[in-house]
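Private note to self, pasted from the team thread so I don't lose it. Backbone tokens:
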């Protein structure tokens, strides 16, 4: 079966090829009803743009670069699924690279991506990145960049994030309402955007519920289980010890869970746990783990849409700024539900 072309769609709908082409690109020049007819017919006939022909015609590669800290991370794998779905339907290929939480590798990967003539970049910053001058230089040349999840206020570009503050507030308040009063917060390096926002939500929930914010209950940790064990042990030695842990990621929550169970701490009777991400196995753990749903696929889809808007420089593209995608708390047995 031969692939459906723009000419086929135009003939079937009695439209000009230029009208169909502009409608498929989402042009503001085409009225919404015509766009709807074209998009529905194209979807029904399984139309897919020819990226090679488009790149020759438009003098663009039709390739998007995606740089993430780690593909194996459940959040990033879901976000990439969202990115690829949007890119594919818009006629773009995706090249995926990992920084492996290294600033140096992030810089090199950005340089390599630009050298390969990608049309734009989607980036989630590494845990070591607190200098974004390598990205600022590209933005000064109007190179399209969209940051997602881990972002920087120092870069003037579109940023797509989850509602980290709201999610952390909901998780902490849930623990308070279940009777917990000494809630430890285990999180990642302090200069990262998601760290600051989740810490702010945690602190606000304590203060709004009449509980003191205690710096001694805050712990920053890297990305290895060997770093989590001594931190949990140190917190348990306090008098009184924490009666709950709110972890800034499910990876950290899993580490805390493993350490507590190895110390024969009964969960949730002695200590409650809430994570942040909602990894696919959270409901299968023993006990099933409460967590904040981070809408990874939606973040990826929105980031891809906004990057393509920047690449194609649409006159009605949404302004540069931060888009916050809502989160949702799922309470399970690890927090006493």
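Design output:
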């Amino acid at each position: 079966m031969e692939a459906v072309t723009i000419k086929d769609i135009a003939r079937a709908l009695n439209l000009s090829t230029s009208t169909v082409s502009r409608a498929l690109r989402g042009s503001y020049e085409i009225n919404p009803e015509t766009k709807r007819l074209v998009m529905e017919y194209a979807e029904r006939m399984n139309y897919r743009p020819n990226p090679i022909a488009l790149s020759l015609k438009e003098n663009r590669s039709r390739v998007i670069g995606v740089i993430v800290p780690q593909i194996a991370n459940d959040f990033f794998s879901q976000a990439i699924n969202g990115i690829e779905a949007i890119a594919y339907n818009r006629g773009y290929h995706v090249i995926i690279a990992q920084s492996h939480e290294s600033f140096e590798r992030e810089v090199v990967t950005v340089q390599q991506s630009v050298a390969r003539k990608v049309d734009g970049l989607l980036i989630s910053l590494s845990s070591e990145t607190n200098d974004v001058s390598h990205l600022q230089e590209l933005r000064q040349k109007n190179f399209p960049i969209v940051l997602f999840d881990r972002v920087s206020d120092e870069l003037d570009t579109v940023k797509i994030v989850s509602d980290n503050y709201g999610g952390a507030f909901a998780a902490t308040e849930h623990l308070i309402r279940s009777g917990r009063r000494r809630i430890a917060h285990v999180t990642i390096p302090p200069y990262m955007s998601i760290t600051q926002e989740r810490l702010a939500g945690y602190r606000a929930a304590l203060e709004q519920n009449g509980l003191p914010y205690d710096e001694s209950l805050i712990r920053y940790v890297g990305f290895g289980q060997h770093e989590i064990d001594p931190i949990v042990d140190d917190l348990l030695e306090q008098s009184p010890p924490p009666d709950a842990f709110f972890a800034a990621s499910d990876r950290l929550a899993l580490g805390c869970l493993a350490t507590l169970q190895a110390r024969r701490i009964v969960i949730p009777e002695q200590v409650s746990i809430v994570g942040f991400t909602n990894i696919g196995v959270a409901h299968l753990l023993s006990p099933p783990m409460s967590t904040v749903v981070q809408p990874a696929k939606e973040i990826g889809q929105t980031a891809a849409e906004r990057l393509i808007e920047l690449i194609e420089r649409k006159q009605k593209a949404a302004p540069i700024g931060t888009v916050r995608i809502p989160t949702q708390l799922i309470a399970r047995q690890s927090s006493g539900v």
